[in-house]
Design goal:
54% of the residues lie in helices and 11% in strands. The protein is an alpha+beta fold. The protein is elongated and about 85 Å long.
Length: 413
């Protein structure tokens, strides 16, 4: 929330003072659409439909709002502005219903049709006496409340409700797209309340910039963050080890019999185990940093530590995981074969059950054999030590022998 909030705060302070001159017509009026259009292309490339639709909404709203400043060309201009101020938060609220997990063309069609209907209705009544029917939207809900405000009370209420829903969504998901929508809505409110077109264009540009930044941050999280476990992902690990030099150690960790666990309790229960193991790894000592390497395999990088030192911390982690009682909440699964479960005429209703079980891990530790040892060789050595731990009974830590450690050190349950 902090970067986007800081950007909006800076805009609120600087735009009225100096930077608003950048958005002076005629050239400045195209800055906000240019930012929004670039953001739409980026969001489309990164498959983020909610942010892409938000940018389209900003683009349409900015153009419609700028048109109202040519008041001499339209009748009932205040009523039209009130309608636009009310429609903007309503459309943002509709975006909360859009599934951001995939690009759904049906949802695009519905949302695009909704925007098209609104634009068509506004185009029909724009500049005619029929626009007077919109004047009721600008009437105060509570007389004498915030007199002189440029934002109708109904629109302000909708901004408040929609902003609260976006903030609640951010607290639940902790994802940058909800943060971007929340702060861009705040920038839109400032644009609606601006006293001149230059400031309004500036705030709409800031709103588009905030959403664009959220698109970039979302792309970063997708590439460098594992959503299931909360750990940095494989790409982040590759970058971290690329910068290693001097004294360091790498540990590779694998959950024992994970496939068997999935077959017995289901993939949802397997995901719970991955999250629980990852939560223990976050607190590994020795200044170690944990990563999700892939599947049920994890990695830990110990900077400025020898393999012997890393092994001690890995052993503490192994014992902590082995001694933890995992309560897995899953479905009561039949022990019949998958084919039998699929073709049985009267399938048994699944019931929620609790399983108390324990999970163990095997860990391999390695360090550079000497100055200039490629980091890929260290990772391979740690992986070899991991497989040796698997072969020797699992639930153990093994260290790869190097020039500095002449013998293999074992820690057995």
């Amino acid at each position: 929330m902090i970067p986007n909030g800081a950007l909006l705060a800076a805009a609120a302070l600087l735009l009225p003072w100096k930077l608003g001159t950048v958005f002076a017509p005629p050239g400045g009026g195209f800055i906000a659409p240019a930012i929004a259009a670039a953001g739409v292309l980026l969001a489309w490339r990164l498959r983020s439909p909610r942010l892409m639709l938000m940018l389209v909404l900003l683009l349409v709203s900015e153009r419609a709002w700028m048109m109202t400043w040519a008041a001499h060309a339209y009748l009932h201009e205040p009523a039209i502005r009130a309608a636009l101020a009310v429609l903007l938060p309503l459309n943002v609220a509709v975006l909360l219903l859009v599934d951001d997990a995939c690009v759904d063309w049906e949802a695009f069609a519905w949302w695009g049709g909704l925007i098209g209907v609104q634009a068509a209705v506004m185009a029909v009544i724009l500049g005619t006496d029929e626009a007077s029917v919109l004047s009721s939207l600008s009437r105060p809900l509570i007389p004498q409340l915030l007199p002189g405000s440029r934002v109708p009370q109904l629109a302000a209420l909708l901004f408040l409700v929609c902003g609260g829903a976006l903030f609640l969504a951010f607290l639940i998901t902790r994802k940058p797209r909800e943060s971007g929508l929340f702060w861009s809505l705040g920038a839109c409110f400032l644009a609606i309340s601006a006293g001149n077109p230059r400031l309004a264009a500036g705030y709409f540009a800031v709103a588009a910039l905030i959403v664009g930044a959220s698109v970039i941050e979302t792309a970063y999280l997708v590439g460098y963050h594992d959503e299931l476990t909360g750990l940095p992902a494989r790409r982040a690990f590759n970058q971290a080890v690329a910068a290693l030099d001097g004294e360091y150690a790498v540990a590779m960790l694998d959950i024992d019999h994970f496939k068997r666990f999935n077959d017995a309790f289901g993939h949802d229960a397997g995901d719970q185990v991955l999250r629980l193991v990852a939560s223990k790894m976050m607190d590994v000592g020795g200044d170690g940093k944990a990563f999700r390497y892939g599947g049920e395999e994890f990695a830990i990088v110990f900077r400025r530590a020898t393999a012997e030192e890393a092994l001690e911390h890995a052993e503490i982690l192994r014992r902590l995981i082995a001694e933890t009682n995992f309560v897995v909440r899953g479905l009561d699964r039949s022990r019949r074969s998958r084919a039998e479960r699929r073709y049985r005429h009267r399938p048994r209703k699944l019931r929620r059950q609790r399983f108390d079980t324990r999970v163990t891990v095997s860990i391999g530790v390695a360090e550079p054999a000497g100055p200039g040892t490629p980091v890929e060789d260290v990772i391979q050595a740690a992986d070899n030590a991991l497989y040796r731990a698997k072969e020797r009974g699992r639930n153990r830590v093994e260290m790869h022998a190097s020039r500095r450690s002449r013998a293999v050190v074992e820690r057995v349950t």
